[in-house]
Amino acid sequence: MPRAIWSGSISFGLVNIPVKLYSAVSRKTVRFNQIDSATGSRVKQKRVSAETGDEVPYEQIVKGYELPSGDYVLITDDEIAALDPEAVRTIDIDEFVDLADIDPMFYDNAYHLVPDEQTAKPYKLLATAMEEAGKVGICHFVMRSKQYLAAVRPVDGRLVLSTMVYADEIVDHTEIGGFDLLADIEIDEKEQAMAEQLIATLDATFDPARHEDTYRQAVLELIDRKAAGETGDDLVPAAAPSSDKVIDLMAALEASVKEAKKARGRHPAAGGGTTKRAAKGKAKAAKKSRAKKSAAKSTKKAAKKAARVRKSA
Fold it and tell me: Are 170 and 106 in contact (CB under 8 A)?
């Protein structure tokens, strides 16, 4: 069973709700060790001095920040500890914003916020109120001597916390070359229409269970085969795509649409249901049906009223 990695309370206004923080993500990856191919034994790393080449004892190692001159400023653990943020046990919500206002680029790690047994009601009240308002709480909290910016959002009656990066940690796109190429490119209307058709053909409802890490699975299968005494001689590296081929964009789009429609026909569930066009059609039909029902209701009411008037006369 997962263990809580932090406990404290959510604070907004004068309200405090005790919670526990559990990691919402368990990353799966295949880890390798470095092995000496001649002996088959593990390769160990040693901390050595760049100047003398001698191994340096752990207790002799300190932190150092390199200056542009190449010199180092040494910082002790006590000096760092004096700067640590106060280890308060509260997640302080500073403001509530729309989820759409947060660029996904700011999200980092996700955690479940689990309520305390005694204060489950205010927890549910907060989650319900946020869900109804369509709001996300932007907050700060301290975990393991580090201050985090985070977003608390409601998910099906629960609260999920996502730590975020700060604005100055996002790489400005203007620092990267290449985007200036887009300024002088004109988009053909037919090409745009075909691209939009391709997007509509691939339109789906996101289902994370449909997506698997096929590379990790292939690596694990290779490990099983080699552990059983087989070799990997039958594996052939995939050929790199040619970059010097001139692409007929319109032909490529048309072929893509055709292939996507074929795939949708083979795997109807993979499309996540209806396309936007089909959804619009359903919406129109439902609207017409509601209008007919409303008109029929009004006719019945009018007939009853007329009957009452005739009776009274």
Answer: yes
User: At 16, which helix (H) or strand (E)?
Assistant: strand 15-23
User: Quick one: CA torsion of 82, 83, 89, 95, rounded to 10 degrees?
Assistant: 160
Highest mean predicted confidence (pLDDT) among 15-19, 100-104, 143-147, 182-186: 100-104
d(CA 270, CA 259): 14
Distance CA 202, CA 263 (A): 10
Domain containing 190 equals 186-203+247-290
Dihedral sign (CA 162, 163, 164, 169): negative
Task: List, as one string, the DSSP characters of 242-260.
Answer: PSSPPP-HHHHHHHHHHHH
Taking the model in full, what pTM does it have?
0.65
Residue 164 located in a structural domain? yes
Task: Kindly state the percentage of the chain with pLDDT values over 70.
Answer: 80
Could you give the C-alpha distances from 158 to 81, 100, 121, 149, 155, in angstroms and in order? Answer: 35, 19, 12, 20, 5
Task: Tell me: do 268 and 132 sit in the same domain.
Answer: no
Q: Does one domain contain both 142 and 252? A: no
- Number of domains composing the chain: 2
